[in-house]
Amino acid sequence: MARTSGSHAAKTAPRIRAAAIRLFARHGYAAVSMRQIAGEVGVQVGALYNHTADKQSLLLELMEGHLTDLLAACDRADSPDGPVAALEAFVRFHIRYHAERPDEVFIAYMELRNLTPENFARVQTLRRRYEDRLESILRAGIAAGAFRLADARIGTLAIIGMLTGINTWFRAKGRLSLADIEAIYCDMIRQSVGA
Amino acid sequence: MARTSGSHAAKTAPRIRAAAIRLFARHGYAAVSMRQIAGEVGVQVGALYNHTADKQSLLLELMEGHLTDLLAACDRADSPDGPVAALEAFVRFHIRYHAERPDEVFIAYMELRNLTPENFARVQTLRRRYEDRLESILRAGIAAGAFRLADARIGTLAIIGMLTGINTWFRAKGRLSLADIEAIYCDMIRQSVGA
DNA sequence: CTTTGCAATGAACGGGTGTTCAGATAATTT
DNA sequence: AAATTATCTGAACACCCGTTCATTGCAAAG
């Protein structure tokens, strides 16, 4: 090999991903053309195919990248002892992490149906791994008698749904700061599981 | 006028809407072509334009129709006295109504970004009207001292998000029936507002 | 039974789609 | 300095897009 692999790619590939994230989040996967992405990067269409196999792979890379990062960050975040404290830590982590990456989150939740079946399955596996973090906390809380909650799985889906919804309406310039919302959600979610 | 307006339209127009709902929900507005819709109805593309001005209007009609029906049904549903009972009635109504129309719900929540700004504003107004139904209940409960909830608006968005999420994962053949889920959600939501 | 007029056809319009590829470019290793 | 090779260009491919419109068909009104 005569050149370090990706000497240029190291600059262009991330820019393609960044442009795709912005455009997919703004207009939707199906409504964005490869030419639009290329235009945003300042390159011709054909050049994109040096960095991604096709449009579908680009979408998959964005989603898998986002979910992998999410899981890694979730692992890094410390989870305190005790079901109530662990639940609160999860909620705060989720809200903060997702608020910082609205575009990736939007794509990961809205473009699932534009994945091929195999790619959908791969993404769902990652998503399920994240949900399982919360489900474990709920299960432990139920087992310890700390939570009054009939079903850990449904509780997980309900809480994730509640949290995910924030991204659809939260605006930094709104009436309440993110810290305010974090506090309100912590209270509501703690109460929702009967703790 | 030589003929009752819409003697044919009375058959074709609803079929177009039904096909569009199915296809938009399955593949997304941008990914569905007018030719696909026409094919599903068993008609040529041009015929669609006898019943809708353009693709964008078709989307708007579906969304406005869904939200108008939702508001009408919500008004018809009786709301019992007392904040706790009213909240439970709202939750049960929402879950049942939405479970019966998964495709319309999916479109109304996922295709907002494919609306032109004016059309988006119209749909948001209707959606806000529905959210206000819940917000009033929460406000009344807080005022009466029946709920322990810091902010009625955030509580509304949190609960709506929680409820709306059901449609993304509920399957009739799943582990739990809709009635089971209804019961679990009623408990969680009642607890979440501190009642 | 003729008139009326809505609805459906089928072809066309201009333009956009994802993807490929031969050839030019430029940067790194030898 | 020369050779190498990842990257980019620019054009092309075959096909699909939303929308329009002259023409045709047909069901109801008079």
Automatic annotation (TrEMBL), chains A, B:
The entry's keywords: DNA-binding, Transcription, Transcription regulation
GO MF term list: DNA-binding transcription factor activity; transcription cis-regulatory region binding
Signal peptide location: none
InterPro entries according to UniProt: Homeodomain-like_sf, HTH-type_TetR-like_transc_reg, HTH_TetR, KstR2_TetR_C, Tet_transcr_reg_TetR-rel_C_sf
Location of the DNA-binding region in this protein: 33-52
Top-level taxon in the UniProt lineage: Bacteria
Keyword field contains Oxidoreductase: no
Residue span, HTH tetR-type domain: 10-70
Family annotation (Gene3D superfamilies): Tetracycline Repressor, domain 2
Annotated PROSITE patterns: HTH_TETR_2 (PS50977)
PANTHER family attached to this UniProt entry: HTH-TYPE TRANSCRIPTIONAL REGULATOR BETI (PTHR30055:SF234), HTH-TYPE TRANSCRIPTIONAL REGULATOR RUTR (PTHR30055)
Name of the protein described by the UniProt record: TetR family transcriptional regulator
Source organism (scientific name): Pseudooceanicola pacificus
